[in-house]
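Propose amino acids for all 217 sites.
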């Protein structure tokens, strides 16, 4: 999608994708990102690509993680910090603005401009409604870029599957085959859940929630 599409969505507050109470599937499966046998007590630093103003960031912070977000819209980022009750410091870099407060850093701008050194040592990626926000060719670029900037950190992906003929995206349908085609060369992929999306997608189309855990090979 063009950047203007998303800027316009935020300007008009057309943000049906935003979950006011956060995502229950993150809470259910977060242990995949937050615990590991080798270093249970070490600090986790989770990257949330295309983060919007998701409440999931607040939840991750409450689990004593550091969180790094990337979001195109400054409107979203301002609201994110307001809703967290946090007054950020804002710095301007050659790539755009960076909002930060305590364990949270959010890059405002195009995710494709981020580098590995911007993100630091990421221990996990939480992708909810990021992959599904992107049309097919861009999705491939996104997957390759995400792996490059996070050094193939483990990923928890929450996507939707539905009949793409029934509705144009976004969100686009991202099923097991798509996740395999993007990531199977670099990750072991496990589907953790398939469940019916109550009420369908946008109340129009039957859809399933899919949750994937990706472990680097
Ligand atoms: C479907 S929303 C999902 C937001 C969030 N992950 C959530 O679960 O609420 C997709 C978000 O990606 C942002 N976005 C789209 N393209 C982007 C890009 N190239 N770089 C950074 N953010 C982008 C949009 O502004 C939008 O907030």
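Proposal:
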């Amino acid at each position: 999608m063009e950047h203007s599409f998303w800027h316009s969505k935020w300007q008009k507050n057309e943000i049906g994708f935003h979950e006011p109470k956060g995502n229950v599937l993150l809470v259910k499966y977060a242990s995949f990102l937050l615990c590991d046998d080798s270093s249970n007590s070490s600090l986790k630093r989770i990257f949330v690509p295309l983060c919007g103003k998701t409440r999931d960031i607040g939840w991750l912070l409450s689990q004593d993680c550091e969180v790094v977000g990337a979001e195109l819209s400054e409107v979203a980022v301002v609201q994110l910090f307001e809703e967290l009750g946090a007054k950020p410091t804002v710095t301007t870099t050659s790539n755009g603005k960076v909002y930060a407060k305590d364990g949270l850093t959010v890059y405002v701008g195009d995710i494709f401009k981020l580098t590995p050194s911007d993100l630091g040592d990421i221990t996990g990626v939480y992708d909810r409604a990021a992959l599904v926000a992107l049309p097919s060719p861009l999705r491939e670029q996104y997957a390759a870029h995400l792996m490059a900037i996070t050094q193939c950190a483990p990923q928890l992906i929450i996507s939707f599957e539905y009949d793409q003929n029934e509705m144009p995206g976004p969100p686009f349908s991202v099923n097991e085959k798509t996740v395999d085609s993007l990531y199977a060369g670099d990750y072991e992929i496990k589907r953790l859940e398939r469940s019916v999306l109550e009420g369908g997608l946008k109340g129009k189309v039957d859809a399933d929630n899919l949750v994937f855990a990706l472990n680097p090979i």
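The CA atoms of residues 39 and 123 lie 11 Å apart. The mean pLDDT is 95.
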